[in-house]
From TrEMBL:
Protein name: CNH domain-containing protein
Bias type Low complexity, positions: 58-67
GO BP terms: intracellular protein transport; vesicle-mediated transport
The CHCR repeat ranges on this chain: 281-457
Matches recorded under Pfam families: Vps39_1 (PF10366), zf-Vps39_C (PF10367)
Length: 660
């Protein structure tokens, strides 16, 4: 009766009877030759296979009788008949397919449930060690979303593959692309090869991506997605199917794969790193992909974006970048700056105060991060340029005097020297041993008071510092210490007062230089004390400088009027501190007197012994016996009882019987 209803055009009623008859879906699908089924499926012939080509035309062809009539018709009638036949064929095909869709949807829940149960059972058997199926790997094929391997003899899953493949085709043929997409997004058993071919022909790229995704064929999906993105970027592309794809689509697809396949994520993230650097690096961070792995991959396949990746990663999360990566980022910046310097030097256009964007990044990185090796970077710097970078590196090596000399004598920017001293002072002041943090200002003061060294001698010191890693140069604490005792300091001050050398030795080692060195420095005609900078330093940082030591370094001819901005607040602070300490001293003395008075009062404690006073230990009267009073002033005992109790406690503590 179902076949009869199908012949007469009652397709939905026919499918209802097929459903009530509980026949296999392959029986009903044999009525639809336009539906392509998996090749491994053997579709049984129904008892009475209908000739659909004459009574119920499929999507691929019309009725043969109608074709014969059209051959003998006049041209005008032929066109009209052809149009009517096409409309009738489409209507009949649509109705038959809609009936099939309803039939398959009603059968689907039970079939998918059985297929899922089979997959779960196999997973459980594998978990308990049942490997009876491992001897013949040719019986397995790849599964859909998270279903493991599917044995070829799996009846329920084979039936599920037939159903989902046919259902997807029917939905596409009836124009229900959104329903087909929902089918692929959920648990499905669609045959990949058949559905892939159909979706490609009809340009259903979104559904094709979901098909690849549900079958864990991520490489094919990403290749297709990349092609769609490139096609959408092209000006020649006006296809509405590709216009909605952008680089962010690739990033969204890669997010779930970070934990399972990081190498695939790195491979395809290179395609969008240049166009979407921030989003791509956020992908790396959110996916917890090791930074060393990402950096090595970028270094090999995208060197131009390596610095950008490290820079953004450091900006997002400073703690997530290791010392090695910090060092590599600084090396990249330095290489770019050196290339820029070489180009300008060749054109004789180099200016020490010129700052390119990369040089600004280099200076910022050198100051803010500490994971790099300053000695290695120092060796790469040219001897006659990039003094600011050299000064920062010397500061990282605690060579404060050389760093300040660069700021003062090479860069001629006292503001940078003062800012450097402030950074050192604040960093040392927070440390437990920050007592000599103000000595860094005395070092700068000595440099201002010293004449400029010749470029030859200064570069010689820098070269010696870099060439030998074991060379020890006095640090700020020892360099700037000004001794009051001894004749050497007296001689230094005398030399400043007599303006013989017009300078103060910056360190104890320089004070012992030979007469030849003194003659060499005296030959510099333009060697003058930078008195203006000295006075500015004293007036701006008077609260951080040891006033007594600073005054001893100044030349004798320095006018007292010029020192008022330094001495006035210094003396005011000193007087205020003296006043405060005097008040504190008086308060301490008063407190001491109060404690003594309380002690005397405690010693005047009176204990009254009457005829009724009892010993708290033996419960006998005290009488005229020697007694002891406990600190609370109320408990009275015989002195003998007190002594015996103390002896018993001592014995009890030393007894081995009480030790456990």
């Amino acid at each position: 009766f179902a076949h009869y209803l199908f012949d007469t055009g009652s397709y939905e009623e026919a499918m209802e009877h097929f459903l009530a008859s509980q026949v296999d879906i392959t029986y009903a699908l044999s009525l639809y030759p336009s539906i392509v089924l998996p090749k491994t499926t053997v579709v049984p012939e129904p008892e009475r296979l209908l000739d659909i080509s004459s009574d119920a035309p499929s999507l691929s062809r019309g009725s043969s009788g109608m074709s014969d009539d059209m051959e003998s018709s006049p041209p005008a009638q032929l066109s009209e008949l052809d149009e009517n036949a096409t409309l009738k064929s489409k209507k009949m095909s649509h109705n038959t397919l809609m009936a099939l869709i309803k039939f398959l949807q009603k059968k689907r829940s039970s079939i998918i449930e059985k297929a899922t149960a089979e997959g779960t059972e196999e997973v459980v058997l594998d978990a308990v060690g049942d490997n009876f199926t491992s001897h013949d790997s040719t019986r397995f094929k790849k599964s859909s979303k998270g279903r493991g391997t599917i044995p070829m003899y799996s009846g329920a899953r084979e039936m599920a593959a037939i159903l989902d493949t046919a259902l997807l085709q029917a939905l596409l043929l009836t124009g229900q692309s959104s329903a087909a997409l929902e089918l692929l997004k959920g648990l499905n058993y669609c045959d990949v090869k058949i559905c892939e071919e159909i979706l490609q022909k009809k340009n259903h790229y979104t559904a094709l991506l979901e098909l690849y995704k549900s079958n864990a064929r991520h490489r094919e999906a990403l290749k297709l997605l990349h092609e769609l993105v490139e096609e959408s970027k092209s000006n020649q592309s006006q296809d509405e199917h590709t216009q909605k794809f952008n680089p962010e689509s690739i990033i969204e697809y890669l997010k779930p794969l970070c934990g399972t396949d990081p190498m695939l994520v790195l491979e395809f993230s290179m395609l969008v790193l240049e166009s979407c650097p921030t989003q791509t690096i956020e992908l790396f961070l959110s996916g917890n992909i090791p930074a060393d792995l990402v950096n090595s991959y970028l270094k090999q396949y995208s060197p131009s974006m390596q610095g950008r990746y490290l820079e953004l990663m450091l900006a997002m999360n400073e703690n997530s970048i290791s010392g090695n990566l910090q060092n590599e980022m600084v090396q990249i910046y330095l290489s770019e700056v050196l290339d820029w310097y070489s180009d300008l030097s060749a054109q004789q256009k180099w200016d020490e105060k010129a700052y390119s964007p990369t040089r600004k990044k280099l200076l910022s990185a050198l100051e803010s991060i500490s994971g790099y090796n300053p000695e290695v970077l120092l060796k790469r710097l040219p001897a006659d340029a990039l003094y600011e970078e050299r000064a920062i590196l010397l500061g990282k090596m605690n060579q404060h005097e050389l760093a300040l000399s660069l700021y003062v004598h090479k860069l001629c920017v006292p503001e940078l020297a003062l800012a450097y001293c402030d950074r050192v002072y604040e960093s040392i002041a927070h440390q437990p041993s920050g007592k000599s943090s103000g000595n860094i200002y005395l070092t700068l003061l000595q440099i201002y008071l010293n004449p400029r060294r010749t470029t030859k001698n200064f570069e010689k010191q820098i070269t010696n510092l870099v060439s030998s890693q074991n060379t020890t140069i006095p640090k700020a604490g020892s360099v700037t210490a000004v001794k009051v005792k001894g004749g050497r300091t007296t001689k230094k001050i005398a030399s400043i007062e007599g303006a013989e050398d017009m300078r103060m030795s910056p360190s104890s080692t320089d004070s012992g230089r030979s007469d030849g060195d003194a003659e060499e420095f005296s030959e510099e005609g333009d060697s003058t004390i930078m008195i203006d900078q000295v006075l500015d330093l004293l007036s701006q940082r008077w609260d951080r400088i040891n006033g007594a030591q600073a005054l001893k370094l100044l030349p004798r001819e320095t006018k007292l009027q010029n020192l008022l901005p330094f001495l006035e607040p210094l003396l005011r602070k000193s007087s205020e501190a003296h006043r405060n300490l005097s008040v504190i001293k008086s308060l301490r003395q008063s407190e001491n007197l109060q404690v003594k008075d309380e002690l005397y009062n405690q010693r005047k404690t009176v204990v009254k012994i009457t005829s009724d006073s009892m010993c708290s230990l033996c419960s006998k009267k005290i009488g005229t016996s020697v007694f002891a009073v406990y600190p609370n002033g109320k408990t009275i005992v015989h002195f003998v009882c007190f002594r015996d109790s103390q002896s018993m406690k001592a014995v009890a503590k030393g007894s081995p019987l009480r030790k456990r």
